Amino acid sequence: MSQSLAEMLGPDVLFFDEPTRREFAGDKWSQGALPDMVARPRTTAEVATILAWANERAVSVTPRGAGWGYVGGAITNRGGVLLSLDRLNAIREISGDDFVAVVEAGVLTGDLQEAVKARGLFYPPDPASLKYSSIGGNIAANAGGPRCLKYGVTRHYVLGLEVVLPDGRILQLGGRTHKNKTGFDLLGLFVGSEGMLGVVTGATLRLLPHPPARAALSAIFPTLEGAASGVKAIFAAGILPAATEIADAFTLRCFRESQGLPLDENAGAHVLVECDGQLSSVREELELVAHALKTAGASEISRATSEADVEALWQTRRAFSLSLNAPNRAKLNEDIVVPRGKLLELVAFCEALGARHGVQIACFGHAGDGNIHVNLLLPTDPDAPENSQEKAQSALDELFAQVLSWGGAITGEHGIGLAKARWWPEAVSCEVREMHREMKRLFDPIGILNPGKWV
User: In whole angstroms, how far apart are CA 255 and each of 18, 172, 260, 348?
Assistant: First the structure.
């Protein structure tokens, strides 16, 4: 069977050797079971051939972008074909007249941003993994990032999609117009579908004019309450920043330890705010932000008005997550979302939760939209208690139950995949779950795409 597929595709598309299968078997969450083969097509037609072949034989197919996800959405647990889109990596067009970019699914987000910036254009979605994650993966997870406070998430920038269905049919959805109300929103259905309804091979993306100026500031607060008050004061002043980030004291302590810096016992929280737009308005907004944070009790404020200095502040922010990694511990990164007014309650709850279960918890993330990354740190050294994973699961049971009781969500930008399948029944009603199953049966009646996940 596999030989006939190889003959249809030609050389250098299918790989059966163990090193390649192992290389493509994992993501940032876990190493999955080895697929029977890895397929690395270069065209949409080759993707269609692979899916049609698999559909006829009921062979499972797991689509994969860059493998940078945190929920196991791109790893297989049933062998079959691991379908990597990494070779479909062409930027087909950047149009300054239509304000669109036409790209293949394997284009890295950061590469697209740099390419359109050189043309005076702007692609706002900015997941922290933008240098490594692909557009196709971003679409599958409806990725967000710090700038979604002002600019929205991936869904808001997808104008058109090229999608291959499980039976090999190719759909062209939407187009390059910025408004389109022709029929049902099938395009929107595939954004965030985690590779379970079809395989996105290309996209037409909305672009904006690139803001001519940006500036940022970081602030240290003695308490998280002060930091939250400062964020609230920014919005009360009528300012909508491009991004507003917050981090708790434990995250700051881990960061300083990882950088070999002396600990600051007065650092109870960190806030990072970026403003963009016209030069005069950015300068004015930055001063208003600084005043709001200082009035709220900021003990230390650093401004950045050049591109390099702004990026330096963001490099510090991005280092927060890396600083939680250590040779003797594993990190569970949970991207929960709460209503913005519950931010303080969430951090207080997590502090008490960690104490109850004997698990260290670090909180940081997007204060502007309530999408906070709750990181459980688990010991991995040989002397660690064997039940640390059980403690983590029990702590997550409590965390997700509390978040849902506040009207929040168990995931804001990572998706469900394998990692959060356990809590999917609690996250939505039985009627909504059945509707998902009906959609899955409609698009993938044999069930070959990404099987064994949450639907």
Answer: 38, 46, 9, 20
